[in-house]
Write a structure and sequence with these properties.
CATH class: Mainly Alpha
Shape: globular
Number of helices: 12
Helix content: over 70%
Structural class: mainly alpha
Number of domains: 1
Strand content: under 5%
Order of helices and strands: HHHHHHHHHHHH
Length: about 270
């Protein structure tokens, strides 16, 4: 985000490379473990981590050096716009718990094979890439908050449909909605928390956002779905996921329009 400077709306175009690498890795490693012991995955993770560590040392410093003045980041989390956004984002990731935990198992129970399941996941990743490479165009046209609310509503619709859908065509169509429920939401949330935080606390804001969503939110979603899956079944859990997404949208809308970055600095 520091490197992008005044072009932060281009974040998605950079983030898309992670999704591309995810697809390539799944394809390559999937073939590799067919001919090699599965423990080779650990070797690949170690090699990839070492390569990433080396490359991180080669990233140049941003042109604009951020102020180092002391600032209590935790006090910023109690501000109404920040608190309500983090709560809504937490609920969004909780709503993904059924999908990330049991989507493949749910499809297997409906009689679909590995090829269909793999294609469904690839289709979702392709959809998110498509929206990410158009991030600058999207955020020039639509406010971040409206994109967030839209992604919550699409998530509610997506989980509701998956709760009853058995048709392969319908299931694949819901995978295209990943463009909004993950791609648009992820980009908007990164930009939104950046706008809420004053300059010295922007890194803290991103850390808090990541901790509340892909940390606590995902953990909570996995735990609850793992506990209730055998008791309630995928259909009921998907409907509860839809209700969770709707609740997240309501929390975000209650927060009202956020203050922009300049207001956040002066608050």
């Amino acid at each position: 985000m520091d490197h992008l400077g005044n072009e932060k709306k281009r974040y998605g175009a950079i983030r898309a490379w992670e999704s591309i690498s995810f697809i390539l890795t799944v394809m390559v490693v999937g073939r590799l473990i067919d001919v090699a012991p599965i423990r080779i995955i650990l070797v690949l993770i170690l090699a990839g981590s070492m390569l990433q560590s080396f490359l991180s040392t080669q990233v140049p410093d941003p042109t604009e050096i951020r102020s180092r003045r002391a600032l209590s980041g935790f006090s910023l989390l109690t501000r109404r716009p920040v608190l309500l956004f983090l709560l809504s984002a937490f609920l969004m990731l909780v709503s993904h718990g059924t999908y990330y935990s049991f989507f493949s198992i749910h499809l297997e129970s409906l009689g679909y094979g590995g090829t269909f399941i793999g294609f469904a996941w690839a289709l979702a990743s392709g959809a998110e890439i498509l929206v990410m490479i158009n991030s600058e165009r999207i955020f020039k046209r639509y406010p971040m908050r409206k994109v967030l609310v839209f992604s919550f509503l699409v998530a509610a619709a997506r989980w509701s449909i998956l709760g009853w859908a058995e048709s392969g065509a319908v299931i694949l169509l819901t995978q295209l909605l990943h463009a909004a429920t993950y791609g648009a939401f992820h980009m908007a949330s990164i930009l939104y928390i950046d706008s809420l935080m004053p300059t010295p606390a922007k890194t803290f804001g991103q850390s808090a956002n990541n901790a509340m969503t892909y940390g606590l939110g995902m953990m909570t979603g996995f735990f609850l779905n793992g506990f209730f899956f055998d008791r309630l079944g995928a259909q009921t859990l998907f409907m509860l996921s839809a209700a969770t997404a709707i609740t997240g949208a309501a929390v975000l809308m209650v927060g009202g329009r956020s203050k922009n970055a300049s207001n956040a600095k002066n608050a």
